[in-house]
């Protein structure tokens, strides 16, 4: 038997978690901006 998987939703959840992690790191200033490939 197979369970339907909402891949788009899973991807959005993962991406959102990833952004939340980077936002937390950025706001805490744990890492200097020049070590990041993307600086806002």
From TrEMBL:
Lineage: superkingdom: Eukaryota
Protein name: Uncharacterized protein
Organism: Bracon brevicornis
Lineage of the species this protein comes from: Eukaryota, Metazoa, Ecdysozoa, Arthropoda, Hexapoda
């Amino acid at each position: 038997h197979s369970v339907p998987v909402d891949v788009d939703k899973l991807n959005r959840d993962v991406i959102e978690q990833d952004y939340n992690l980077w936002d937390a790191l950025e706001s805490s200033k744990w890492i200097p901006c020049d070590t990041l490939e993307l600086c806002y």
